[in-house]
Design goal:
homodimer; alpha/beta; VC0802-like; 8-stranded mixed β-sheet; 12 helices; 24% strand; disordered N terminus
C-alpha cells in the first residue's frame, strides 16, 4: 500500500511541526502522493463554498500531491431536479422512466465539477473536470441505484501526469449501452472510494459536515470523543445503525479494496496547515494497522427507528423462519434484528425488528398470510423500543464484554427485551424511554470518554 | 426529398378537412414521415409548458410520424449556469476555462431532454433522450462556439425503429477527444437542422414565440403580413439584419443540406388539428419550389444597431481597403456594410458600418493605426443612422426594384446616405429618425400589405 509522505501523518515527529504554513506553496514533500478528496453537497452548497473547496484543494496540490476531487451536487440541486421530474411525470418504476431520472439527476454533479474546475483555474491551479462517462466509470444498468463495475484510470492518469487536478463527477456512471446511470443517494462517497481504489490512491479524504466519527452521538453524550481511527468493520456496524456519516456501500468498497479512508470536516478554515489537516478527522483503517487504537469497544450506536414484532408459541419445525420472514420479504419489508431462541415443549418464540413505518403493514401481513397456517395466533409487537449497540473490533479477543454491557444496563434498572450479537457488535433492544440513559451508561462503562492512553 | 403525407399540408383538399381531430390517435397517415421538432427556451420555460410540448409531440407521434425533438434549455437556465461560473471565476478566453463553461452549460439541455422524455412517457408515448455525446453529435473543439462536423444517425434510427420518440439535447456535441462542446447561443436551432439533415427528415419544425416570418416588424408596420413561405436566401438576408427568429447558422445549414424548415408558434393550443398546424407558420423553402410566392420583394428588414464611419480623401492606390479594414479586423471589430466609390482626382472615400458599441473603439483604432500612414486625417462618423433593406429573391429577375425603393424614400423626403446592393437585397443607410417612416413607405410601395393573389 503506497503511503503519501508519512510526515503528513506524524507531524509531531517532524522538524517543522510547530511551523505555521499558510498557503503551502513553499512546502514540497519528498515523495509525491495521489490523494482523493470528496466534498459533500453542503461543502459545495454555494459559489463561495466552492471557492473555499478550490483553495483547500489548491493547498494540497501545491504541496506536491497529485489530486483527484469528487464533489457532490450543490446541496438542494438533486431535490430540485427530482422535483421538476415529479411535476411532469407521476412516480413509477419503469426502467425507461428511471433512465430519464438518471439523465436528469446526473446534471447536478456535472454542474459541480465544471464550477470547481473553473474555481481551481481561477486559483491558478490547472484543472480539468470529467463526467462519469468521460472517465469512464462503468456501472450495471440498474438506473437510480447502479453499481460500479469498473473504472478506467487511463484518462485520469494522463491528466494527472500533465500536472492537472482532475475533478470527477460523483454519483454517476455509464452502462454498457452508453446510457447515463446514477448510484443512488449518497453515491458520491462510493464514487470517491472507487476512484481511489482504481487509482491506488494513498488516501481518500471525505470532507463532510462532521469532523469525524465519534464514540457516540455527542448530542446524547456530551463527553463523546472523536475517534482518531476506527476499523472498517466497526464503521460498517456503526453506519448500519444510524451513524450516517458515510454511505455504507462506500465503506464496504473501501474495506474490499483496502482504501484508507479519512472522514473530516470541510468547515475548518481552508488555510489551516496541511500537516494538521492531514491527521484530523477519523481515519478508517484496517485491522492490524499500527495506528489502531487499543480500545475494546470503539463506540456506542443507537437507533430508535425500529419496532419489534414477536410471534409466540410457534411450533418448532423446519421451515418456520422462512414461513414467517418469507411473507414479510415478499411484501418488500426490510427486517433488521432476527432472534429465535431454543424451543421448549416443541414451541418457540420468533422475534424480529422492522422500521417503525413498516410496523402496521408487517402485522397485517403476518395476520393475513402467516397466522392462518402457523398454528399460533399470538402475534405481538411494540413500536416504543430502541436498539443500543456496542461496537468494537477488540470484542473478538476479549471475554466478558457483553456481560459488562448487561451489568451497566442492569445497574441503571434498564430491562433488556432482546439481545443479538455478532463478532464485533452486541445489540440490545430496550424501552425507548431509556435510550439516552443506556447510551450514557455504556459510554462511561467502557471508558469512551477517556482519551486513549 | 421525402415528403410526409401531403394531406397534412393541403388539408382543404382532403376529405376529412372539416373534421376536428382532438387527439389524433385514430388518424394513421398512409405514409410515415420522419419529422424533427425544435422547441426554444421559452416553450420549455416551465414544467407546465414542457407538458404541453409533450402533448403536442404526442399528437404528431400518434398520427404515425417518426418524431425527433430537439429542445433548448429551460429559459433562464443557461444564464443561471453562466452566472454561477462568473461567481467562481473571472471571465477569460483560456481554452481550459472555455471547456469547463461548456461542461457547465451543456447541463441545461440535458435537464430539458430528461424532463421532456418523462413528460412524453407520462402521456403514454415511449420516449428516450440523448445528450449530444450519446448520439453522437461530433464537433470541432472550439469550446463555447463549436461547429458540428458530423452526426451519427445509427443510434437515433434504432430507437425510432423501436417506436420511440427520440429527444436530443440541442446546443451541444462532443469533440474528437471526448470533451463536451457547445455551439454558442441559439445553437439549438443549428442542432435541430443538423439532426434533420443527418436523418433526412421530411421537415424540421422550429417552434418558437413568434408565429412565423413577417414582411417586416409588425411593431413598426401594423399591416405587416406573415409570409407562408420564404426562401433560404431571403431568410439569410433578413436574419442578418435583425429579424432574429432563427440562428443564422441554422438557416445556412438548412440551405446547404436542403432541409425544409418551418417556423411556427409554440403558443397555439397543443391540441389544434395536426393538419392545420402542419401548414401554419412560415415554410423556409428552396428557390423553384412550386409553393413559392410570386412577390418580387418579400420583406423589409431594418437595424438601428449600427454606426457609419467614413475615411475621406483616401489616396486611390492598391491595398487601401486592407490597410483600413485590416486594422479594424485586428481589433476584433466586425464590419457590416462596406462601400468604396470610384475615385476622382486620385482620391476616394471609404465608408463602412460597425456595431454602435464598437464605434468609439473603431475611431480610436483608425486614428492610432491608420491615419498616421494613410495620407488623410479626415475620419468622420455618425451613430445616429439606421439601415433599411428590401429583400426578395425576385429582385434578380426584375429591373427597377432599387429605383422604386429610392423613389418611395424620396417621396417621403428621406435622404439616402449610403447604398449597398447584393443579388437579392438593396440596403440604404439613412438618418435614424426616419426609420419607421421609411419601413412603412417601403412596405406600402411594394404592396407587402396585400395578400398574395
Amino acid at each position: 500500500m503506497p503511503r503519501y509522505n508519512p510526515w503528513f501523518i506524524t507531524p509531531w515527529s517532524a522538524p517543522w511541526a510547530d511551523v505555521s504554513f499558510g498557503v503551502q506553496q513553499s512546502f514540497i514533500p519528498t515523495q509525491m502522493a495521489l490523494i482523493v478528496h470528496k466534498y459533500g453537497g453542503t461543502s459545495m452548497g454555494s459559489t463561495e463554498r466552492i471557492r473555499n473547496v478550490a483553495r483547500r484543494v489548491a493547498k494540497w496540490a501545491r504541496a506536491g500531491n497529485q489530486m483527484v476531487v469528487v464533489p457532490s451536487a450543490m446541496s438542494g440541486e438533486t431535490n430540485r431536479l427530482l422535483g421538476l421530474a415529479k411535476e411532469v411525470s407521476p412516480a413509477g418504476s419503469d426502467p425507461a422512466m428511471q433512465r430519464e431520472l438518471d439523465m436528469l439527476a446526473a446534471t447536478g454533479e456535472q454542474v459541480s465539477v465544471g464550477l470547481l474546475a473553473l474555481a481551481l483555474q481561477a486559483e491558478g491551479v490547472p484543472a480539468i473536470s470529467f463526467t462519469g462517462w468521460q472517465v469512464p466509470v462503468r456501472t450495471n444498468n440498474a438506473y437510480t441505484k447502479a453499481r460500479i463495475e469498473s473504472i478506467d484510470d487511463q484518462r485520469v492518469r494522463a491528466e494527472l501526469d500533465a500536472g492537472k487536478v482532475v475533478i470527477i463527477a460523483g454519483f454517476q456512471g455509464i452502462d454498457n449501452d452508453g446510457h447515463i446511470t446514477t448510484l443512488g443517494r449518497g453515491g458520491s462517497d462510493t464514487s470517491a472510494v472507487a476512484v481511489a481504489a482504481a487509482l491506488k490512491a494513498a488516501e481518500c479524504l471525505i470532507f463532510t459536515d462532521v469532523d469525524g466519527v465519534y464514540t457516540t452521538d455527542p448530542r446524547v453524550v456530551p463527553e463523546a470523543r472523536r475517534l482518531a481511527t476506527v476499523t472498517f468493520e466497526e464503521m460498517l456496524e456503526m453506519a448500519s445503525m444510524g451513524s450516517k456519516i458515510l454511505q455504507i456501500r462506500s465503506v464496504e468498497f473501501a474495506g474490499k479494496y483496502q482504501v484508507p479512508l479519512r472522514v473530516l470536516s470541510s468547515f475548518t478554515p481552508w488555510d489551516i496547515p496541511l500537516a494538521q489537516e492531514a491527521v484530523s478527522g477519523t481515519l478508517i483503517t484496517f485491522e492490524g494497522d499500527e495506528t489502531m487504537e487499543s480500545a475494546v469497544v470503539s463506540g456506542i450506536a443507537f437507533n430508535r427507528d425500529e419496532a419489534k414484532i414477536s410471534v409466540l408459541g410457534v411450533p418448532d419445525r423446519p421451515g418456520i423462519a422462512y414461513q414467517i420472514l418469507g411473507a414479510v420479504a415478499d411484501a418488500n419489508i426490510e427486517v433488521d434484528v432476527i432472534i429465535q431462541n431454543v424451543s421448549h415443549d416443541g414451541k418457540t418464540d420468533f422475534s424480529f425488528t422492522v422500521h417503525r413505518n413498516d410496523y402496521a403493514r408487517t402485522i397485517d401481513v403476518l395476520k393475513a398470510k402467516v397466522v392462518p397456517t402457523l398454528g399460533t395466533d399470538r402475534v405481538e409487537g411494540d413500536t416504543r423500543i430502541c436498539k443500543v449497540s456496542i461496537v468494537g473490533i477488540g470484542m473478538r479477543s476479549h471475554v466478558g464484554i457483553a456481560s459488562k454491557m448487561f451489568r451497566a444496563l442492569s445497574e441503571e434498572g434498564i430491562n433488556i427485551q432482546m439481545i443479538s450479537t455478532s463478532e464485533i457488535k452486541t445489540s440490545v433492544v430496550i424501552d425507548e424511554k431509556y435510550m439516552e440513559l443506556a447510551v450514557r451508561a455504556l459510554h462511561r462503562a467502557f471508558d469512551l470518554d477517556q482519551p486513549i492512553g
